[in-house]
Amino acid sequence: EVSCRRLGGGLVQTGGSLRLSCAASKRTSSNNGMGWFRQAPGKEREFVASISWSGGDTYYAESVKGRFTISRERASTKVDLQMNSLKPEDTAVYYCAVSRYAYGSSQAGHYQYWGQGTLVTVSS
Description:
It contains one helix and eleven strands; from the N terminus they run βββαββββββββ. Strands 2, 4, 5, 6, 9, 10 and 11 form a seven-stranded mixed beta sheet that branches. Strands 1-3-8-7 form a four-stranded antiparallel beta sheet.
């Protein structure tokens, strides 16, 4: 019910940009917050960004603030993550998720549906 895709190549150089797009079924996401998480090799999954159902409220991890932008249109079933000024430490599998609530959250347990993940590799 949640599918993610990468717009552009999965391997980018440091300082480059990449856009991720996620689409969820209308039944599961039109009134729900959505978020992005990532998991680097050998590390736990971590929060990246979230957005409310209306698109009016966003929240970012400190590590990506100012570089990444999450966006969606009001009650849309699609959410994008624009990633700029990429760093090698951004290398991870990125997951899109649908929140149980109208607002996004940094807590993985607040999300009920998860996408399959897409790999982003940033070379130094």
